[in-house]
Amino acid sequence: MDASETFERxxxxxxxxxxxxxxxxxxxxxxxxxxxxxxxxxFPFLRGYAEEIADxxxxxxxxxxxxxxxxxxxxxxxxxxxxxLTTECGxxxxxxxxxxxxxxxxxxxxxxxxxxxxAEDGGRRPTAEAALRLxxxxxxxxxxxxxxxxxxxxVDVEDRSVPRSAWRLRVPEEVWDVVRGGAFAHDGTRxxxxxxxxxxxxxxxxxxPGLAEQLATLPELVRSKRxxxxxxxxxxxxxxxxxxGAIARSLDLGRLGLEAWPSPSDPYxxxxxxxxxxxxxxxxxxxxxxxxxxxxLPPLGRYEGPIIVIAGREGGFSGERIARALDVRIPxxxxxxxxxxxxxxxxxxxxxxxxxxxxxxCLPAGHVHQAAGLAxxxxxxxxxxxxxxxxxxxMRMLNRQRLDGLADRVETRATWDDLVVAAGTAQRLxxxxxxxxxxxxxxxxxxxxxxxxANRGVRALLAGASxxxxxxxxxxxxxxxxxxxxxxxLSAVFNKYVGETEKNLHRILATAEDLDVILLLxxxxxxxxxxxxxxxxxxxxxxxxxxxxxxxxxxxxEGILFVTTNLPDxxxxxxxxxxxxxxxxxxxxxxERRRILEVHLPDDxxxxxxYLSEVAERLRLTGGQLRNAGQLATLLALxxxxxxxxxxxxxxxxxxxxxxxxxxxPMEGPPKERGEEVEAFFAGLAR
Length: 687
Fold this sequence. Notes:
alpha/beta; Rossmann fold; 5 domains
């Protein structure tokens, strides 16, 4: 086989082109070592390389092979990473061979013995001095040839504390993977490379109102150097990675996902810049900042192309690139957009289900894709087509994955019949349910005066004494809407360290908003308390900051939020103004207390109606206390003889609740079983 045939075979793909450089590096090494002892004697494994080179090219000089490689590359299409070391990084062939030579130990462990034999300390990687002696160009300053390799991140130094000549050099594994044209799949690299062909074009994505038009202008802005970074502001489920991929594709680039965020001086960033340059990929960084937090965009070595940063709504960035950065907000999907997303994830015959899911659930595109996939899996497991129940269960699985540890899911098996409140309170609660059910339609029908000041969020304050039905009301509304309810104890969110409370609130509110669940902030007066106008201490100032953050976040919140408080007078007036509905829960009157008792006693109870009316009139217990009494009475009956609940059981339970409240028992006289039976008999006749 002549040399031209060898070039044709080896340069047909990236690994073959890389193999040519291995031959050139080994040939140069043999030439430099031949000035002393015979390298084939001292290092017999090199004989195999020498024979393979001779079979391919005959007796060829190192400079000739290096020249032929460069000439051959000029006839080949772009896309070879080893050639990109010259075209994109500006390296010479000698510098390419230094990179290849330093990395030989990654391909063949026998080279470790060779480098150990060349070094006095027996190190198994080449020193800077050895690498330059073996592969640098004869006519150039050897140290000047090494500097660009370090600046690009193509070569790392293991220990810079030793003299420069003794630096141990290595090629980072992700860089080596790229130049050799092999698989780029190492968990430890914290990089994910996707070629342009694997990225979806923008017209195949569900982008939301106005976003497609905005993205269409980006390629020209980037190519003109007017912007060097794009900051995508998005919720976690907003399909931001696919949108970032579409932007990269429109620029004829791949996408390099960077999953870590070490310090700006970390060599990781130089390596990332090198990989992005060699693979023609756009670096993509992901960063979820807390309120008030600022992070510097890292310098990616000598990489000068555009980058994409995926971030949440909070926080900001600094650095040279941010001066030429464009903020792009991924908007919430409207009903029609969500319908297209559901249709893409569900079978074509399930158009009705896609329509219903789009109307009911205000999810971003990413969560729609996940929920649709999970619903399909559940339906196929039982050999059926997916239903709305499958969709709800799929969403519940997503909620558990994201919200567990941040909030507690509350069971919502409750109906309006279970809730006994005053007529005015019930009317306000029905108003909340209507607002939640029609929140998107309402937003589209509001007058021009609401433009820019309204969103699809619903915020309600449930105020009243403990046990008056606030949490039960939230359960009833959630059940009626078919939505999950998650409860957060604000006292657990509060943190004594400055800024931590805001971070906790941000994480909870952003996650609940993204998953479209109803969030219940319990004991809201912890943070909704009145601000101190004369903040004399640091504690007062920090408390005001937390309150101010929550005030601002409530205005922009686009989910459904219920806040409960037992101390309505302690709530800052600014919070009340920001609530769409304020519901005051009052202690139940006699009629409500009678109804609450009836709801919480078993259907087969034997408690006389007259006695129920009497205790409802004379015992001023809250709904929660009456509920506890009903449960205890049932337990006493079960422990007694397993029969129905009778007056004696209920009276004992009511006495217990009175004692817990520190009140005396107002109904004197022990219960009489015989009288109870007579009373029940006449009560039955009266019915």
